[in-house]
Amino acid sequence: MKNKTKxxxxxxxxxxxxxxxxxxxxSLSDNPKLIEAIxxxxxxxxxxxxxxxxxxxxxxxxxxxxxxxxxxxxxxLPLIILALAFGTLIADFIGYVFGHLxxxxxNRKYPKIxxxxxxxxxxxxxxxIPIVALYASFVPFPNEAILIPLALAGIxxxxxxxxxxxxxxxxxxxxxxxxxxxxxxxx
Length: 187
Prior knowledge:
By secondary structure, the protein is an all-alpha fold. 83% of the residues lie in helices and 0% in strands.
């Protein structure tokens, strides 16, 4: 019973943070000085926000929640999506490198985990690319949760690049249009 209560409270907290940030982003989109500052950073600012959001595993807050600010500053929605997808891809690469660099340490400390991951890589190689693409597209959790184990298994990042690009573009598109719909509904 305690686990269910913790799960429900965690979900309520995540939803509350998401709604709070959405409300904050929407109210800040009326601030002319902030909009001017965002316009100065432009798409590079969107990429930076996506990198930070992509690496944040403690409060997984999608960068797309800031889309109203980017739109209010005059940035193009399709280019915002591409900038956020690119920033997320950079965060994915950083997570992958972390997994790759920690491979020897994890193998020494937890050989069973590495053996399990390597076994999946050897026996289910054909499933990795579609799973990565689907995960990056539709799972509302940082991509590092799947990329670090794949790095531990020795999968090359270049083989994950196309599914991550496609997945990140789909993910950002769904989130931005979903958040735009929520903004129109509530604000």
